[in-house]
Design a protein that fits this description.
Layout: H1 8-19, H2 43-57, H3 61-72, H4 80-87, H5 107-110, H6 117-128, H7 134-149, H8 154-164, H9 174-177, H10 187-199, H11 204-213, H12 218-233, H13 238-246, H14 250-264
């Protein structure tokens, strides 16, 4: 089995898949096994794969998204964000519609420098439309991932993010923050909460567990926190990688492999 060190695409997808098991049931602290046989990927993964495919092949992002949803989506993946994307109806989105932030995680590997992150993020936003909360979230996410990939330490990453994104700055711990949220989260909460789950972790799996303990939006929080953790710790348990790959369509696996070969290994 190939080792996927530093592959934030696979890392984020695995978090999405593991989080899917807790959409309709609470995560219990101390749950020994995250590898639920009923786990499956969500629209977070579909969007991430579509954007990665478009960046790899230089094809139109929106056409790749339509391709993947047309091929793989079922009623399970009915998404207000997709309705907004295809129809352009702003009323399709509301405060609690999931903004699908995993679509931004391939970007840091494409960027040639820190300064190019906003431009590439804007390109993806222009192609996938901005739902109103994703602009700053996309820049926050790509900046954090870029700094993780470049080897910055956690405190330095947090200080940089606090400087560029003061609206996301907070000093509360996850233990206190968990008591604040009882409904699905919008972009303005998902990005900083997922980052805090990563900040209070000591491993890839620990970051996912921290995200799940928040108790809401498990797929979105677990996938994004997992991406941060993969970028920082640079590795994930082999059993989680294998578990994830076995539950993805072969075309998704091929994109993950191509992403690894073109952007990560080099």
């Amino acid at each position: 089995m190939m080792h996927f060190r530093k592959n934030i695409l696979l890392g984020g997808i695995a978090g999405d898949l593991l989080g899917s098991s807790y959409v309709h049931r609470p995560y219990e602290i101390g749950d020994e096994n995250l590898l639920n046989p009923d786990a499956t990927f969500s629209d977070e993964t579909l969007f991430a794969i579509a954007v990665a495919d478009a960046l790899l092949t230089e094809k139109c992002v929106i056409k790749r998204i339509c391709h993947y949803f047309g091929t793989y989506a079922t009623k399970k993946f009915t998404s207000p964000f997709l309705d907004f994307l295809i129809g352009g109806d702003p009323y399709a989105m509301n405060l609690y519609s999931k903004p699908v932030l995993l679509r931004f995680i391939p970007i840091p590997y494409i960027a040639n420098s820190f300064c190019s992150l906003p431009e590439i993020s804007q390109t993806v936003l222009d192609a996938t439309k901005n739902d109103g909360g994703s602009l700053q979230a996309s820049r926050f996410i790509t900046t954090a991932l870029y700094l993780c990939i470049c080897g910055y330490r956690k405190n330095d990453i947090k200080n940089t993010l606090d400087h560029y994104f003061p609206e996301y700055r907070h000093t509360q711990t996850l233990e206190k923050l968990r008591k604040c949220f009882r409904h699905p989260l919008h972009a303005q909460f998902i990005a900083p909460l997922a980052f805090q789950a990563f900040m209070e972790s000591d491993s890839y799996e620990h970051a996912i567990r921290n995200a799940l303990e928040i108790g809401v939006s498990p797929e979105a929080l677990a996938s994004l926190s997992a991406a941060f953790a993969m970028a920082y710790y640079q590795e994930m348990p082999q059993e989680i990688a294998e578990f994830t790959l076995m539950r993805l369509p072969m075309s998704f696996v091929e994109i993950v492999l191509q992403f690894q070969e073109r952007f990560v290994s080099n």
